[in-house]
Design a protein that fits this description.
- The protein is an alpha+beta fold.
- The chain has two domains: 101 residues, Immunoglobulin-like (Sandwich), CATH 2.60.40.2250; 149 residues, C8orf32 fold.
- The chain is built from four helices and 14 strands.
- A hairpin with a 5-residue loop joins strand 4 and strand 5.
- The chain is globular, with a radius of gyration of 18 Å.
- It starts with a strand and ends with a strand.
Length: 265
């Protein structure tokens, strides 16, 4: 499937800003699941200071704001040809070892609610089915609806709530899989939604490393494994590691954020 993506993030400030630095994970990389064609990241009100690969293999751009600017606009756009691998990325080993993805983080630390979810069988032949059942249970326990959680809500707190979003579902799934001794990680990316070009935010799902298969994806919010409608951007142990945009600034100005995202075939 040929997907065209346009993703704009615009910050506006109530007063000129002397210093701000944004870390961008906005460049998808080619893999067995996708082939990235033309792709650009454009900056208005700032510039790219440095680019590198982080310890997960994600492409990072560090962007500084122009001193005294009152707005910063980041545009990522391009074309990606996707393939349906039924969610199986395979035994692709990056810079981070498997044991790193067994470690909990502040956002994925399991508490009593997560520990009460069912474990995945040690029998390799049963693990895929168990993980799909786990995905179904998480979605039934925490129905998808925005507004119930925030970007910094830990998985345990989210599960105790009434509704959640894809970030919460992915982090709960990751935390639970790790309790069964399975390396698991968070994935940020884009999803083509049928009959909906304009979207409010990027998407998120989880990947678990299984013997014989390698990394396998699970989108809890939609109850499927990622197919040709998905584009991977970044990975990490939690949402913070794989956030498409994060940053810091100095000064007393208030900040407003507007995101515009279109994913279409």
């Amino acid at each position: 499937m040929e997907l065209s993506i346009s993703h704009t993030t615009e910050y506006t400030y109530t007063a000129p800003v002397d210093y701000a630095l944004q870390k961008l994970r906005l460049r998808p990389l080619s893999s067995v699941m996708q082939q990235v064609g033309q792709w650009e990241v454009e900056i208005d009100g700032g510039k790219i200071e440095a680019s590198y690969r982080d310890h997960y293999g994600n492409h990072i751009d560090l962007v500084s704001i122009e001193p005294g600017a009152s707005a910063l606009t980041i545009r990522a756009s391009g074309q990606v040809r996707t393939l349906n691998s039924t969610g199986v990325l395979g035994s692709v080993m990056g810079r981070a070892p498997l044991w790193h993805f067994l470690q909990p983080t502040a956002l994925t630390m399991p508490g009593e609610a997560i520990k009460a979810l069912p474990r995945v069988a040690s029998d390799v032949s049963a693990q895929v089915a168990d993980l799909h059942r786990l995905s179904d249970m998480i979605l039934k326990t925490l129905p998808y609806m925005s507004g119930g959680t925030a970007v910094d809500t830990p998985a345990e707190d989210a599960l105790k709530g009434e509704t959640g979003v894809c970030q919460d579902h992915a982090q709960i799934f990751v935390a639970t899989a790790r309790l069964s001794g399975l390396p698991a990680r968070y994935v940020s990316g884009y999803l083509r939604i049928n009959e909906q070009v304009q979207q409010e935010a990027t998407h998120a799902w989880a990947e678990v490393f299984l013997q014989g298969l390698g990394w396998v994806g699970f989108d809890v919010s939609n109850g499927v494994s990622p197919d040709e409608k998905y584009v991977r951007i970044a990975i990490g142990r939690d949402a913070r590691d794989a956030a498409p945009v994060e940053g810091l600034r100095m000064g007393d100005a208030d900040e407003s954020l507007m995101v515009s995202l279109q994913v279409q075939q």
